[in-house]
Design goal:
By secondary structure, the protein is an all-alpha fold. The chain has 8 helices and no strands.
Length: 218
Amino acid sequence: MRFLRRNTTTESTDAVDGSDAVAAELDAAPKGHTPGKGRPTPKRREAEARRRGPVPPPPRTTREAMRRARGSKEERKALAAKRREVRLANRQRMMSGDEKYLPARDRGPVKAYVRDLIDSRRNLLGLFMPLAILVFIAMLSPNRALQSYATMACLIMLLAMILEGVLNGRRFTRMARAKFPKENIRGLSLGWYAFIRASQIRRLRIPKPRVKPGDRVE
């Protein structure tokens, strides 16, 4: 009994000594020192994996693997709808003339000014596409006289359109240089831009016209 009592006393003494040693170490440690956790800090990948939950089992077939790669049907529908909304919003901004969403060929104050000049006038070039459709229909007719008349009218209208396009291009270039003297304006490039814009049907022009025919552009 004495032997057991002596061991108990020894163990309690050792425990007290151990606690005193730990307390002494803590007192000796510098301020702001945080004792170690006793385990390594988990990596970010491991923490995210724990948050997501258990890893699903590997796919059994190729079809299942492809289905997982594509995602669920609802996710694909939601993603497609979001992309469609973004495209529609960007197209609306482009049609309204927002510089950020316009193609490179339509950007700049000079191009906007030329577009306004063209849209404020009624041009023969605007009849180019309807005339081409009428000539195509006439060429399908078995009547040779109608075909010859349609060809003749088409040639005359084309010559008039080309002449009008050249005159308008030179005039619009001169007006643009007078309004924007600091801009580097190339006459041939700007004239061709005006020709293409004027040859389009008014409703199909991109961006949409900001002025009506007959409006004064300054």
